[in-house]
Amino acid sequence: MKTEFIRYDQADRVATITLDRPAVANAQNLDLLDDLDEAWCAAAADPEVRVIVLQANGRHFSAGHDLRAGLGPDSPDKLTVEYLYGIESRRYLEYSLRWRNVPKPSIAAVQGSVIAAGLLLCWPCDLIVAADSATFSDPVVAMGIGGVEYHGHTWEFGARKAKELLFTGRSMSAAEAERVGMVNRVVPVERLRAEARELALEIARMHPFALRQAKRAVNQTLDVQGFYAAIQSVFDIHQTGHGHALSESGYPVLAGLDEMKEVIKR
């Protein structure tokens, strides 16, 4: 499977999904997300696949939403919260939750910048292997919005670190992300894909039903603790952020767009 934005390969019981929009730091337009969801669904349905690896071509894993592309050619001239809610609940919330709940282990291999919606791609994965130069950030408070749509922040960073990152918009290094438990392994960038694949092959030797049950046990434990309900409720809080931004003259997205441009230039 290959689309304009996604490559999909399967070998040795491992499905590899590769973001392939390196010229814009794998910024996500709606077509990329739809293609990515199709690839996840293909891997989930294939009985030969036991493990899924998500990776990205280019220097950066993902600079987040493609703010230059907007919401596609069919978007209305006047944006409303109702319209944004429909677009985002499908692509930014339902997709991420579906990927999280695919009953097969998944590994994200990330390098370079992972900005805002870039987190929506790696957080649903069960394991994260990061290049030592990778950084993670969610600077959307500068855009008048309280955080990206899939609010894994508190679960991934811990409450106080999540607040610090959101309040300041600063980046977290791969080493710090490993210390707080968001990242499983940090490796030199030239070893990133090999490390992720070796880990995937190791896991693929395990019994697929036992893997499914182990994943379900951990995810259900998080859900009992409130993960699923929190993700849903904070998504609604995010939409009030859009209401605030829409009430501001010009919709203040320039801070996020400027950061994305800087990433693409590097």
From TrEMBL:
Q: Give the InterPro entries listed for this entry.
A: ClpP/crotonase-like_dom_sf, Enoyl-CoA_hydra/iso
Name one matching Pfam family. ECH_1
Q: Name one GO biological process term.
A: fatty acid beta-oxidation
Q: Which CDD domains match?
A: crotonase-like
Note the superkingdom of the native organism.
Answer: Bacteria
Keywords of the record: Isomerase
Keyword DNA damage (UniProt): no
Q: Which GO terms describe its molecular function?
A: isomerase activity
What is this protein's name?
Enoyl-CoA hydratase/isomerase
User: Which species is listed as the source?
Assistant: Pseudofrankia inefficax (strain DSM 45817 / CECT 9037 / DDB 130130 / EuI1c)
